[in-house]
Amino acid sequence: MKPLRSFYWRPRCPLPERKTAQLILLCSLFCIAAAQVAGLDISDWQASQLYQQTSVVMLLIDPTDGRIVHANPAAAEFYGYPAETLESMNVADLNIADSDTIRRNISAATKRAENQFRFTHRLADNSLREVEIYSWPIEMDSATVLFSIVTDITEEQQARQQLEQERLRLERAEEIASFGHWVFHLDTGTVEVSRGAERIYGLENPPFTIAQVQKVPLDQYRAALDRAMADLIEGNAPYDIRFRIRRINDGNIRHIHSIAEYDAAQNRIFGIIHDYTSEALARQDLQRRTTWFIAAILAAAAAQLLIILGLVRAIWQRRAAEQHVRRMVREKDMLLREVHHRIKNNMGTIMNLLSLQADTMQSQEAVDALEESRSRVGSMLVIYDKLYRSGQYGQLSVQDYLESLTHEVRETFASGRRITLQTDIQDFPMDAQQLFHLGILTNELLTNAIKYAFPDQRPGEIHITASRSADNLAQLEIRDNGIGLPETAVPQGSGFGLELVDILVQQLDGRLQVHRNRGTTFRVEFPAR
């Protein structure tokens, strides 16, 4: 056959660019066959518009060794090599697969056992592209070659991978959030469900029907679900409903919230479901706890009310008791005041009787004894008078009591007018019983000083001091500048007055000291109460 190099073949039906590889392969094979029937050389096909000007990558490959026999301009542009360079290369130089795989696929294409393949090809710039190859054996110059159309599917693969990643993310999101989605095809009665919806409903072994899915909700919700679906389709109300289901695979009761919309053009319903069982159980638990908490608060309030009522009753009883005690105390005070008043009157009577008795006595010794007795009774009379006047029967002022007592004792004796009495008495309270003993003690020591420290009408001074230290130790000191106590006389002597002083000091749990230096000093120390 003589080559017709000047032949320019144009299909009667020009093919648009970027048709699918299968269609182009069929058209190309048809054109090649037509050219061969017409007795045209294959080189005329290679010069045709379909081969030279198309953007589809075309290669002619020798199946015996994989050598590239011919490459169209689109192949040179795609791979980045000049056509002459490509035609000196082997498909193994482009395909990163191993040689056995390449030979096996070339053999399958030659035998027409398989004509569609996917490989990764390396371009001239060393970048990798995912390609889909359609190969078909044809006769050229009495030899078989593989006519191959190469399609770049890298972006398609990336898009498919991205789509798969998005699908996995959606499934993961549905799993985390306990969501799922579904589509009711009303014309066919079938249901499409996502993995999340399958998991929530416990569905297995698709495909599923609408009737099968509608059996999952509990029976008491069926009428409400049907009514909501009918209202959605008729456009009366949106589909937003909560219900419970018995999951198919394990029988668990789940709380479901579903929202859907109706596509009238496709006559289908798209919806989502949310398994909010955990939230519902938590809400129920919260309501139960809240109920218990409110009950506990009411019980606590009732208990507090009872406690308050009990406290009010106790306070009322205590006030009544306090009023009773105050009434009894007032009665006791009145009785004590009456007793002290009577004791005071009786002591005044006794003093008067002693004075009358002394006036009738001829013996001076007897008169002195009666006067001393009268003075002792007078010291007791003073304290009862103070108790009666103050109304305080527990404690009295030491200063107030001793000031009155010492001046009254001095006025009892005629010789007392020649004696200067100086007092320095600290004002502090003292127990009445203790002060009673202190008063008699003071009376004895002061009387003794007035009678015996200044004989022969001698004038003199008597100093009386009383104080209390920080450690609550009381001290009474009576000092005169008289002739002094004889060395032979001791406080524990045989005289009645000194014996009485010794007894009183012991009753006060105190200690008596006597100093003889330009007179006599009696110092008594005892714990004050």
Question: Care to give the gist of this entry?
Answer:
Keywords: ATP-binding, Kinase, Membrane, Nucleotide-binding, Phosphoprotein, Transferase, Transmembrane, Transmembrane helix. 49% of the residues lie in helices and 23% in strands.
3D architecture notes:
The protein has 529 residues and is an alpha+beta fold. Among the domains are: 21-152, PAS domain (Beta-Lactamase, 2-Layer Sandwich); 176-275, PAS domain (Beta-Lactamase); 394-527, 2-Layer Sandwich (Heat Shock Protein 90), CATH 3.30.565.10. Helix content is 49%, strand content 23%. The strands form four sheets. The protein has a six-stranded antiparallel sheet with strand order 8-7-6-11-10-9, with helices on both faces. The protein starts with 20 loop residues before the first helix and ends with a strand. It is an enzyme of class 2 (transferase). Pfam families: HATPase_c, HisKA_2, PAS_9.
What's the architecture of the domain at 394-527, going by CATH? 2-Layer Sandwich
Can you identify the CATH superfamily of the domain at 394-527? Histidine kinase-like ATPase, C-terminal domain
Euclidean distance between termini CA atoms = 153 Å
Tell me the strand order in the biggest sheet. 8-7-6-11-10-9
Helix count, DSSP H or I runs of 4 or more residues: 16
CATH class of the domain at 394-527: Alpha Beta
CATH fold node name of the domain at 394-527:
Heat Shock Protein 90
Class by alpha and beta content: alpha+beta
The radius of gyration is 67 Å
pLDDT averaged residue by residue: 82
In terms of DSSP E residues, the strand content is 15-25%
Query: How many strand elements?
Result: 18
Which outline best applies?
A: rod-shaped
Transmembrane segments: 292-316
Keywords: ATP-binding, Kinase, Membrane, Nucleotide-binding, Phosphoprotein, Transferase, Transmembrane, Transmembrane helix
Protein name: histidine kinase
Organism: Spirochaeta africana (strain ATCC 700263 / DSM 8902 / Z-7692)
